[in-house]
């Protein structure tokens, strides 16, 4: 039975749901938290990849925030009432000791994600994690070198399972975790097939 969390070099990565993750080391970082319950621990930093409802869920951001939480987001995201840090592709920042780089994320042959969308490379406690955001397989992935890559596999709005399997060959990572499938309509995928075809695949189950 798959677990919800994976620990690498002391950093815990928990798949919350859909594209939402908690990264916990010396700081608590959330990426794209969506439709979450109240009882999760508060965030030091929250990253938002773009402004769609299932990624920029202000209600969930509010639940996870404390007085000094910083929300990092690309332009086009209207997030009021929080300390924020706006980024664009290529922006590098350090927020509360967490290193953040915004990288390209976009659709090649779909209309959904063209502007104001990013992925992130997060550096925490010496571990580098790539959250691809909502994206197709794109040439820029060949420049990604990290410890762990979080890749959408559900199709329709992002790359599908087979495209993600090919993308994993482009990205230099030790481990690959599939995401963005099963939580909303038209995003289905078989994670076991991903595991069979991707060396270093780690299959997590959503926390809720």
From TrEMBL:
What InterPro entries does the database record attribute to this sequence? RibonucZ/Hydroxyglut_hydro, UPF0173_UPF0282_UlaG_hydrolase
Q: Name one Pfam family in it.
A: Lactamase_B_3
Q: Superkingdom of this entry's organism?
A: Archaea
Write down what this protein is called.
MBL fold metallo-hydrolase
